[in-house]
Amino acid sequence: MAHRSRAALTALAALGGLIAGFCSLAAAELVSALVRPEAGPVTAVGGAVIDRSPAALKEFAVRHFGTGDKLALELGIVVLLAVFAMAVGVLALHHRRTGSAAVLLFGAVGAVAAVGRPEGSAPDALPSVVGAAVGAGVLFALTGRLTTAPPRPPAPASGSGSGSGEAYRAFDRRGFVITAAVATAVSAGAGLLGRRLTSSVQAGATASRHDLVLPVPDSPAPAVPAGTGLDIRGLSPFFTPNKDFYRVDTALVVPRLDAAGWRLRIHGEGVARPLTVGLHDLLRREIIERDITLACVSNEVGGPYIGNARWLGVRLADLLREAGVRPPSAGGPADQLVARSVDGMTIGTPVEAVMDGRDAMLALGMNGEPLPFAHGFPVRMVVPGLYGYVSACKWIEDIELTTFDAYDAYWVRRSWAQQAPVKTESRIDTPRSLASPKPGTVPVAGVAWAQHRGISRVEVRVDGGEWHTARLAAADNRDTWRQWVWEWPATSGRHTLEVRATDGTGATQTGRRAGTVPDGATGRHSVVVDVS
User: For the range 67-73, what are the long-range contacts, defined as Cβ-Cβ under 8 Å and sequence gap of 24 or more?
Assistant: First the structure.
């Protein structure tokens, strides 16, 4: 009986820890709605984990979880919090004050993580502090219901048996249930109120995006040539729909900015006339429209982190010249442009690349609509020919001119290269790996890219044999990917299909395998199929 009583108490103590943890997170949710959503403890700790993770771990997460890496991280943190909460609940059963102190200590960790974020400030500590105080108080109250003074049973009558005489622990079961129910209900209400407040605050941003009317471009994109898209089942479409466009960033909470309040500051070394512009200032300038393919440096050979879109925006070089900036080739002192996002991300881009005549822009629109929030609304950078981590700053709010010697941007401090032009790459989209096509003519098709150089040839081979020239779709421009197809006379058996591309300079894609760090993967994509 005593053993069962102890087990029941331990289980209830663990449950009490979980309830206290839930109450803590709910209170933090409410306070973060009043401060800013990014200051919540789960988001703050998750951001700190991302900031301190080595490049290899980050690549592991992207490779195995894809664009769901942030959800996996948050779920992992919640699971760890649950385990921690149950352990603290059991600790509090025996050491009541120590258990509550442990909750406060964990709140301090969240507060430090929130304030220590690149965009953090002192008020960001409040959600973790308040949440920890609420959790500690709830745990203290619940544990009190489990630690009432143990009454002793009456002594057994003489000769009536050898009762153990061991005291057993009684607890206020009804009080525990009532306290737990009230705390859970109140906290659930607080959490829901926090969500509602956050939605209310974000409603202005949603409305500003809905109300934004994109202007007709002064310099529209040339018409896409006939034959740019091949009508082949399984082949990626020439334009990637916004909902399918890859997203790789460190933001656990997607910033939702009100377009009316957005500002961009341009300053730094070699800036003769610092500028601060708003969205409507940009809309009054010359608007360009261009088709540009973006690629993530985390994209492994044959990977999915690449997409093509029609972008609408303002030439970044024009703004820089207005600010008095000169590229290094014209004697300018700054060779790096550091773009800063509202979430604290920093991205370093070569000034020369932005001002060499390519269509580097501050983008406002994507595929005919305002930028989606997940892709940088209201304004982001797009620079053809460079991997995103050195060019594609989303939610941009600041541009500082400096030098590569003077400043290392976010990813450079994490083992990535300072400069990273997109490599010549190709991918087989169809047939998929381990597909089972029938013998006969099988279309082998995919995409190839070498932004700002273009694609001049694609070749395919079977089982390491001779290379066969694929038929290229019509080219849109040298900043977009290009579709291709080779009609394979397939024979029965297992075969390996391999592809390589040659860019507009005549350089052929290397077959040497290398990982994504420090400046992008190399190698040739291949798939194995069983023809039967």
Answer: 67/246, 67/247, 67/248, 70/46, 70/251, 70/252, 73/46, 73/49, 73/252
pTM: 0.87
Q: What is the mean pLDDT of the chain?
A: 92
Residues 301 and 521: beta-carbon distance below 8 Å: yes
Comparing CA positions, the residue from 372, 258, 399, 397 lying closest to residue 307 is: 372
CA distances to 47, 104, 236 from 63, rounded to whole Å, are 19, 36, 20
CB 71 within 8 A of CB 118: no
CA atoms of 18 and 154, how far apart (whole Å)? 36
For 44-86, list the strands marked E by DSSP: none
For the ranges 151-165, 312-326, 436-450, 458-472, the lowest mean pLDDT is seen at: 151-165
Is-cis flag, bond preceding 378, omega within 30? yes
Backbone angles phi, psi at 530, to 5 degrees: -110, 110
* 312: nearest Cα among 452, 449, 451, 218: 218
Task: Name residues whose C-beta falls within 8 Å of residue 81's C-beta, 6 or more positions apart in sequence.
Answer: 21, 25, 42
Express each pLDDT in 479-502 by its tens digit.
Answer: 999 999 999 999 999 999 999 999
> How many beta carbons lie within 10 A of that of residue 292, not counting itself?
25
Q: How many Cα atoms sit within 13 Å of 478 on the Cβ side?
A: 12
Is residue 213's pLDDT more than 70? yes
User: Rounded to whole angstroms, what are the CA distances from 401 to 296, 378, 385, 427?
Assistant: 24, 22, 20, 37
pLDDT in tens, 219-266: 999 999 999 999 999 999 999 999 999 999 999 889 999 999 999 999
> Cα 480 to the chain's mean position, in Å?
24
Do the beta carbons of residue 242 and residue 309 sit within 8 Å? yes
pLDDT at 166: 39
Q: How far, rounded to the nearest angstrom, does the alpha carbon of residue 425 sit from its chain's CA centroid?
A: 24
CB burial readout 189-214, b (16+ within 10 A) else e: ebbeebeebbeeebeebeebbeebeb
Burial category of 180 from C-beta neighbours within 10 Å (exposed 0-12, middle 13-18, buried 19 and up): buried
Please count the helices (runs of H) and the strands (runs of E) in the chain: 10, 18
Distance CA 466, CA 490 (A): 15
Question: For position 165, what pLDDT does the model report?
Answer: 38
pLDDT band of 158, cuts 50, 70, 90: very low
Q: Which 8-state DSSP code applies to residue 301?
A: T
What does the pLDDT look like over 416-449, one tens digit per residue? Answer: 999 999 999 999 999 999 999 999 999 999 999 9
**Using N-to-C axis directions, what is the helix angle for 41-52 and 96-116, rounded to 10°?**
60
Q: Which range has the worst mean pLDDT, 23-37, 58-72, 124-138, 500-514?
A: 58-72
Integer CA distances (angstroms), 83 to 14, 87, 90, in order: 9, 6, 11
CA 94, distance to chain mean position in Å, is: 42
